[in-house]
Amino acid sequence: MTLSPDTTPCRREEAGVVSVKEPESRIITGSVATRGLIPWQALIIPGASSLCGGSLISNSWVLTAAHCAQGVSTFTVTLGSTSRTSAESGSVTQTLRSALIHGSYNPVTVANDIALLQLTSAVASTSFIAPVRLPSYSQASNSFAGSGARVSGFGRISSGNSNVSPNLLFADVSIIANSECAKQFSGILSSNICTLGSNGRSPCNGDSGGPLVIQEADGIFTEVGIVSFGAENCPADVPGAFVRVTSFLQWISTNSGIAIRA
């Protein structure tokens, strides 16, 4: 897939701002995303056959999970698309040759499961492609427990089906306290954030690296988590664990040059 011409008028989009209403159609554990609803979503193919997600956090950088990047030398990154299987007008695909993985990433404990991908060329913001907002330093002490959030990705569509979704899906979930999450998983760190969904809604295999966002009082979406790990086969009513983005703001800024709000 190569750069496709955009048939809609281009306009500059602010980070975390969307102008598309969410759809009502449902599929098993989530809803199919309308184009432009989640314009920061990245579809990442690490190597030849794996599948991960990511988020556009500036016009040059994509945020994802370290376990999606470890041991991989080539990444195919697609932005602006809600289809995994067919080209869409206005989407952009780039092939990247390296990733910046957190120096303290531990594949055994899954600590510091965060990585950055630098695009080969900057992308312009359009109706379908726009960065998500990062948290501010002042939000570093906020647990976000009790907040509603949204997770998105192209991963498995149910705990009993190994097939991944051909379309971008999203699910609305609730952020829970780390103490609750620790009842399910040992080794939950302060640098993790967890969610619990209803009716089996949760991230699953293939969603790794994708964004967990909240919509703040100003209406803008802010990424607070990166899909990291969960229970095998993604059973219903079991929390999903994410990287807590506020724990890595300085690392993101130092390595990408992105200015973080105070």
TrEMBL record:
Signal peptide: none annotated. SMART domains: Tryp_SPc. GO terms for cellular component: extracellular region. CDD domains: Tryp_SPc (cd00190). PROSITE patterns: TRYPSIN_DOM, TRYPSIN_HIS, TRYPSIN_SER. GO terms for biological process: proteolysis. One of its GO terms (molecular function) is serine-type endopeptidase activity. It comes from the Eukaryota. Keywords: Disulfide bond, Hydrolase, Protease, Secreted, Serine protease, Signal, Zymogen. It is found in: Secreted. Its main location: secreted. Residues 27-257 form the Peptidase S1 domain. It holds the Pfam family Trypsin. InterPro entries: Peptidase_S1_PA, Peptidase_S1_PA_chymotrypsin, Peptidase_S1A, Trypsin_dom, TRYPSIN_HIS, TRYPSIN_SER. Transmembrane segments: none annotated. This is Peptidase S1 domain-containing protein. It comes from Timema cristinae.
